[in-house]
């Protein structure tokens, strides 16, 4: 199975994270993509980079959105081919 194209950086008890996860789950269900979730509190480098932006959504390893996930924008990003060897 290929690596998930979407990464959600979140933290427990975050209502915006719950909303972002729901959007991502809906998009993944429709597109066949998958996602992974990383807890910002477990990774000091993520905390340093994104503390004021969570939830943060990455697509193909690059920052895509923060605070809220725009469903149509995410769908459009996923419709582009994944480029390997970035």
TrEMBL record:
Record PANTHER family: GLUTAREDOXIN-LIKE PROTEIN C5ORF63 HOMOLOG (PTHR33558:SF1)
Protein name: Glutaredoxin family protein
Pfam families: Glrx-like
Domain of life: Bacteria
InterPro entries assigned: Glutaredoxin-like, Glutaredoxin-like_YDR286C, Thioredoxin-like_sf
UniProt-listed SUPFAM superfamilies: Thioredoxin-like (SSF52833)
């Amino acid at each position: 199975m290929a690596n998930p194209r979407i990464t959600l950086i979140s933290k427990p008890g975050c209502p915006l994270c719950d909303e972002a996860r729901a959007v991502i789950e809906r998009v993944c269900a429709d597109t066949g993509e998958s996602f992974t979730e990383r807890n910002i509190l477990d990774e000091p480098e993520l905390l340093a980079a994104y503390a004021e932006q969570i939830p943060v959504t990455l697509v193909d390893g690059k920052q895509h959105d923060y605070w809220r996930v725009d469903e149509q924008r995410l769908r459009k990003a996923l419709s582009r081919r994944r480029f390997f060897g970035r």
